[in-house]
Specification:
single chain; about 325 residues; alpha/beta; Spore Coat Polysaccharide Biosynthesis Protein SpsA, Chain A; 11 helices; about 20% strand; globular
């Protein structure tokens, strides 16, 4: 794994750390400071450390994070994950956690465009204990810019998958999650499959494989993170691309589950045939043609993926 050490806080007692928070960053040297500030304000009493994984060679994000950690006495490390792609960045952080913090019990993940609630870690751990689960996720609450049309605020691509604390069958996003050490120890490496580096979905695939091993999932609605939504995302073009991408991920993961591509293709055609009726129903219920189109966009994305046409939204981060 192609990793370089960049910074380590002074007097870091790695053996005492119980929670490791991994924070991937890519060309967001200012936004990552807001994320770090929220991590520095956590109310949890258990000792924790932060690993920042800069996935860009210029090291601007690493420099920014290192300066903040030094000035604000935040325990942790900053590394450079040289292999480009979000799965590589996550894998670098998780492998570093195992290497540097031998006694950690929980691994948390937050992204560099998110700000954690001050009780974020505390509430996640509480839910893990109460539900006897192994992996807990929480809502990524979208923060739209002033003047954003209401239709985007209500669109499914921006909505959390659950809204009630308790056990759930599966999780889908790694942007707000806490994972027990036992899960990390049990899962083969690479943890996230690099095939998903530029389309996303590596987290969904990871959770699917965790479920196969018998690990249990929970949702903590009281552990939100607040995610900035750039104005370019509150547009039909971006939402359409994201919807197609979501359909593609669905097809790829389903093929892996059943190990039967013919079955997946057949299901994709069936979903495409049914999608106009589902879209019409949704459009009427939501009083929005744009929201209603989501079912058709997902279906088209699935079918395109069957023929190798996949939208790699993360390939060009400036447009994502």
């Amino acid at each position: 794994m192609n990793i370089s050490d960049f910074y380590r806080t002074e007097e870091l007692n790695a053996d005492e750390i119980e929670i490791v928070v991994t924070l991937p960053t890519f060309k967001r040297p200012e936004q990552v400071l807001l994320t770090l500030q929220s991590l520095a304000s956590q109310t949890v009493t258990k000792p924790y450390a932060v690993i920042v994984m800069d996935n860009h060679e210029d090291g601007e994000g690493a420099e920014s994070a290192a300066n903040f950690m030094a000035e604000h006495n935040v325990n942790g490390l900053v590394i450079i994950a040289h292999d480009r792609g979000n799965c590589h960045a996550y894998n670098a952080g998780w492998a570093t956690a195992l290497k540097e913090f031998k006694n950690f019990k929980w691994l948390a993940v937050i992204d560099d465009d998110e700000i954690a609630d001050e009780n974020w870690l505390h509430n996640h751990l509480k839910t893990l204990e109460n539900t006897k689960s192994d992996i807990v996720g929480g809502p990524q609450l979208q923060q739209f810019h002033e003047g954003t049309a209401d239709v985007w605020k209500r669109h499914p691509v921006f909505k959390p998958h659950y809204d009630t604390t308790g056990t759930v069958p599966i999780l889908y996003s790694s942007g707000n999650v806490v994972i027990k050490r036992e899960v990390i120890d049990a899962m083969p490496r690479p943890f996230l499959d690099p095939q998903f580096n530029f389309i996303g979905g590596g987290d969904s695939d990871f959770y699917r494989r965790c479920a196969v091993k018998g690990f249990r999932f929970a949702w903590c609605n009281e552990a939100p993170v607040f995610e900035d939504v750039p104005e370019r995302r509150a547009t039909f073009r971006w939402v359409n691309a994201r919807s197609y991408r979501n359909g593609a991920i669905s097809a790829i993961i389903e093929t892996r589950i059943h190990n039967n591509r013919a079955k997946t293709i057949f299901k994709s055609f069936l979903l495409l045939a049914a999608s106009p009726f589902r879209s019409l129903k949704s459009a009427i219920e939501q009083k929005s043609l744009i929201i209603g189109l989501y079912h058709m966009q997902i279906a088209f994305g699935r079918l395109l993926a069957e023929f190798g046409i996949i939208n790699e939204q993360y390939r060009n981060p400036e447009a994502n």
